[in-house]
Amino acid sequence: MSTLEVTPSTLRTAAKVLGDAASGINDELEQLSNAADALRLAWEGDAQTAFDRSQTRLRARMEEHRAQLTAIAAQLAKLADNYGTADRNAARGLGGQ
Fold this sequence. Notes:
Elements: H1 8-41, H2 46-93
Helix pairs in contact: 1-2
């Protein structure tokens, strides 16, 4: 049987991993946008228009994912703070420091 250990530290680590992933999405979107802009200058016609629409949809979806990761990271960080406070209060209630 496996166990799941939840501590403020593990929650903060998870929040950082997700925050870093969200930042990585931003970086990749910027690189994709730059590459698409360069390609767009040398390309015209129906295929270019279809590519633009497709790239716009992809960017919107990826920005949604980035926003979701950012929100989850913020919630995990808040949960870590709340969990730490609750743990300290419980320790005090049991005669700890």
